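User: Here's a chain of 193 residues. Predict its fold as tokens.
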Amino acid sequence: MKKSSQPVQRKPRTDALRNRERILEEAKRAFTRHGADASLDDIAKHAGVGAGTLYRHFPTRDALIETVYRSEVEKLAAAAHKFAAGMTPFQALRAWLLMFVDYVSAKHIIAPALNSVAGGPSRLYEGSRSLIQGALDELVKRAKKSGDIRKDVDSSDLLRAVIGVSYVGFGGDWQQSARRLVEILMAGSRPVK
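Assistant: Prediction complete.
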């Protein structure tokens, strides 16, 4: 029997996955507070790992910043499936839109750090758009099929409305305003009886 010359891919150890998640959570906090110049050594320290562990997972600052952003997008996309599995179509759509408000807030806060990534943030945003749009499309389609929302509701309109309020009134209370907007959008999306 001939042996393969390629190394066997092993699943990461549970503790390695935990370390990676702690690093990402602490990095998100640090980049939010201090921008792209946040100390990587401090991130490692607050995550409870050594600097070597951080650099093993994220060899460069850009790699860490990119992964923090992608992780937030992936969590948002995964939430659509989780909400759809455990809630009515209307509740799932509402919950996801409220979570999207938090995502937009995090994106605004971490934007200065994203601007420091080689190639700029637009490269990162490109890949995230399709994940986000796909997740919302599925939730809207499901809510239409169940009759929870009108057939003329367009997922892109919902996204534009929530994103728009963040840019028009980005200040201390824009999130509360965006949450109210989600409630208005959801009420206006109901079929006329």
